[in-house]
Amino acid sequence: MGSSNQNTGKIKTNFVPRVNQLDSIQLDNEITNLLRQQIQNILQVLPPGLLSHLQPEINFVLNSALWNFSIRTHYATFGQQMLSIAYEKDQLPSAKLALHYLLTTVLPYAKENAQFRLTNWSRVQKLLQLAENALVLFNLVNFFKFLRSGTRPSLVDCLLRINHRSLDGAKRRTIGYSYMTRELVWAGFMELLGFTIPFVNYHALKRKLRNLLRIEAAPQRQDERVELTADTRCAYCNERVILPHHMGCRHVFCYLCLKGNQLADAGFQCNVCDYRSETFRKVVVL
């Protein structure tokens, strides 16, 4: 009776929820992608093409380093360590460790190397495609098996027959809703902005603010002679004038710049001399 209670306690202590096991795989993928992105950012400062032909070897060194400092040292990947789970040490002797390294690091390198350097070998590419399709099928079958049994979520774990154990007992998974609350508040704020911003006349506000910050008001100018040369630029967009028009002052606008601003703001003023007019005319070159 006492031994039965001890076995039950051991099973409860070593129990690892399915969601933790799946999350550990996701975390491992994210860590690998993050480190790979950092390496790519470093290699961008080098001359183009200097190390591009060594991409499979760079990934192999990265994966080997991750495996060495996680599985070989702590019997757990970095994602598993973040969730306080690990493999059973007695299920990973030296021979299984070597086989785990072969399946998780060496074989992916061999596949990437063949895809990278043997592109002209059609038979090799077909064999690789068949192997990838078979792996997808086996992973799918193993996933359904994992959902039923709750152990060995990856195909490598199933082949090596290794299980996870909890490092801090069978604690309940705690869920924090602070991130979700922030997301809901931010989403509500963005919806409010999306609803109210179309009703705000940005052009009129900008004009009123510019006039308010001026120390003394600029006098209204009468019609002046408009000068148009090959170097004339639009007073609004500061680009070469397209379909030159003016609103009564001597400054020249593109037709779309002037017409668009007058449609958006009935009190539009010249942004250079503050001349205001509700009409505009085409610049005639004499």
Task: Write structural notes for this entry.
By secondary structure, the chain is mainly alpha-helical. It contains ten helices and five strands, in the order ααααβαααβααββαβ. It has helices at residues 2-14, 18-43, 55-74, 78-82, 94-117, 122-149, 155-160, 178-196, 202-213, 255-264, and strands spanning 85-87, 164-166, 244-246, 253-254, 281-282. It has a three-stranded antiparallel β-sheet, covered by helices on one side. Helix 3 (55-74) packs antiparallel against helix 5 (94-117). The radius of gyration is 34 Å and the shape is elongated. Mean pLDDT is 81; it is low at 1-12.
Main sheet summary: 3 strands, antiparallel
Radius of gyration: 34 Å
Question: Helical content, roughly?
Answer: 55-70%
Q: Please tell me what the overall shape is.
A: elongated
Strand segment count: 5
Structural class: mainly alpha
Count of separate DSSP helical elements: 10
Beta-strand level of the residues, as a percent range?
Answer: under 5%
Oligomer: single chain
Termini gap: 111 Å
Mean pLDDT, nearest integer? Answer: 81
Helix-strand pattern, N to C?
HHHHEHHHEHHEEHE
Report the uncertain regions: 1-12
| Strands side by side in the biggest sheet | 4-3-5
Core attributes:
mainly alpha, two-stranded antiparallel sheet, disordered N terminus, 3-stranded antiparallel beta sheet, 286 residues, single chain
Give a quick summary of the entry.
The protein is mainly alpha-helical. The protein is 57% helix and 5% strand. The protein is built from 10 helices and 5 strands, in the order H-H-H-H-E-H-H-H-E-H-H-E-E-H-E.
